[in-house]
From TrEMBL:
Gene Ontology annotations for the cellular component aspect, listed alphabetically: mitochondrion; nucleoplasm
Domain of life where this protein originates: Eukaryota
Record flagged with keyword Cell inner membrane: no
Gene Ontology biological-process annotations: spermatogenesis
Coiled-coil residues: 62-89
Family the entry assigns: Belongs to the AMY1 family.
GO MF term (any one): transcription coactivator activity
Subcellular location: Nucleus
Assigned keywords, A-Z: Coiled coil, Nucleus
Protein name: MYC binding protein
Main location (coarse class): nucleus
Organism of provenance: Loxodonta africana (African elephant)
Length: 91
């Protein structure tokens, strides 16, 4: 039983190490990006390698631009929907 607790303790230490170093967050982001891909790549492993290989510390400006892009996409979709409604109303 003592051996089981020692292994569990090492596992927990390793998990905390991965969490503190940002590995878990990075892996989560890459896996979410793969999940959200509209057209899944032929090789998920190549997708992960590409995105992990390109992983660099995020520039705050890049993150702001990504947020702005997401907002603009939402606004665009709302305008397209409004346009459809107005065209239907005119006809």
């Amino acid at each position: 039983m003592a051996h089981y607790k020692a292994a569990d303790s090492k596992r927990e230490q390793f998990r905390r190490y991965l969490e503190k170093s940002g590995v878990l967050d990075t892996l989560t982001k890459v896996l979410v990006a793969l999940y959200e891909e509209p057209e899944k790549p032929n090789s998920a492993l190549d997708f992960l390698k590409h995105h992990l290989g390109a992983a660099t510390p995020e520039n705050p400006e890049i993150e702001l631009l990504r947020l702005e892009l997401a907002e603009m996409k939402e606004k665009y979709e709302a305008i397209v929907e409004e346009n459809k409604k107005l065209k239907a109303k005119v006809n």
